[in-house]
Amino acid sequence: MRPKLESSTAFTHQSGSARDSVGSATNRIQRPKNFPPGPPPVPIFGNLFHFNIKNPLKDFVKFAKQYGNVYSLFIGTKPAVILTGLTAIREALVNKAADFSGRPNNLIKDITEGKGIIIADYGLQWKEHRRFALMTLRNFGLGKQSMENRILGELEHLVAKLDKYAGSSLYPQTLFHDAASNIIYLVLFGIRYNYGDEILKVYVRLYTENTKLANGTWAMIYDALPILRSLPLPFKKAFDNYKTLKTLTLKMVNKHRETRVPGKPRDFVDCYLDELDKRDNGSTFSEDQLIVYIMNLHVAGTDTTSNTLLTAILYLMAHPDIQSLNFVLYLSFTLHLKSGY
């Protein structure tokens, strides 16, 4: 009879634990003391149901109007503070940068395994790689005339492409991503691709898909409900895309190695490989880190630039009067330059 008693006791304990877990999950989520205001969360899901699954970004603007530029949300049961507007963001990320330098455990961090620099934790790895990037990018023209010349050179290709399609339709998203990608590739690998190149198409498509997933509702669901992470839901595609990007980037690095001369760097990748040769096994520098680093710099150097250009084009299309005014200002400026004054 003794085994029965133990089994019964174990069942009672498990049932009690299950009840406690369910009870704690379904309890009302309370905002901590002095926490910013925000929409009321529901048990387990927090504020997930407050978002439009197709375009959650609009809801952030709506909440800012309702609760102010500093408000709070619950991603599942996890609290989050949302900053809106230049003043609030500058106060946190510039004036108190060290206090807000941490990174959350989220979809992108799991995909990259905390490597790279964008989503890496604030520590030795982040500090060393940030220092290396600033020094190396400056050596290759960041903030100097040589970088401006690279950008102007790519603009010539961009304008030629636009002229070719004058009077007909053109898909600008791919074009601007291609142009921005070429500028960063010139710094990273010393190469540029023709617009429409198949390799460039794959890179741009995968980066664009992952950026949309990372900024969408499925990423919030991934962060809020860990129990769903093993299911074949849309966020799984971000992991698959990332693996493909890593494989492609590794092939580029290996091909680049074939023509590399140690100690005579031609570009960012050569500089990193030279640094890797100098470091010992305990260093934060590694080949795997380089691959993720390249991907970080690519997406950081292309996504924001291309999206800014696309937004500007969209606003000009929506406001033809401003478009006409800009054209007049452009003509007067070019005439001024030609006149020599």
Automatic annotation (TrEMBL):
Lineage: Eukaryota, Metazoa, Chordata, Craniata, Vertebrata
Family to which this protein belongs: Belongs to the cytochrome P450 family.
Record InterPro entries: Cyt_P450 (IPR001128), Cyt_P450_E_grp-I (IPR002401), Cyt_P450_sf (IPR036396), Cytochrome_P450_fam2 (IPR050182)
Keyword Endoplasmic reticulum set for record: yes
Keyword Chloroplast: no
Region ranges (Disordered): 1-37
Keyword terms of this UniProt record: Endoplasmic reticulum, Heme, Iron, Membrane, Metal-binding, Microsome, Monooxygenase, Oxidoreductase
GO biological process: one example: xenobiotic metabolic process
Cofactors demanded by this protein: heme
Pfam families noted in UniProt: p450 (PF00067)
Membrane topology: Peripheral membrane protein
Subcellular location: Endoplasmic reticulum membrane; Microsome membrane
Domain of life: Eukaryota
GO terms for cellular component: endoplasmic reticulum membrane
A single GO molecular function term of this UniProt record: oxidoreductase activity, acting on paired donors, with incorporation or reduction of molecular oxygen, reduced flavin or flavoprotein as one donor, and incorporation of one atom of oxygen
Compositionally biased residues, Polar residues: 1-29
Gene3D superfamilies: Cytochrome P450
UniProt organism field: Hemibagrus wyckioides
Protein name: Cytochrome P450
